[in-house]
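Task card 7
Instruction: Convert sequence to structure tokens.
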Amino acid sequence: MTDFGYSINTSSRMNLDDFDKESFDKLAEMEPDVRKCMACGSCTASCTAGKFHETSLRSAILALQNGQEGKAIDFLKGCMLCGKCTMVCPRGINTRHLILSILKVYGTK
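Output:
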């Protein structure tokens, strides 16, 4: 292996094989739209609750894909289920239903 003179800090490494992928697959079975999200950020940009609490469906989905369920739930705690994000989603994802499904699968852990 070639030594380029730098390395990744141990604290920055994320082993994607260590988390339970079955729970994300279970969510995808319940709510197939979770795989349609292209992480454009329209939902986050339109979020009224985002002004008061760090609320981001995009970040929550990315956290779930990386096995960080607790972080994902934190991103959704401030959601008021107003539906603005559903209206601006270019993929037509029912974001309110998706948020409720995420909370149903991961919120009880």
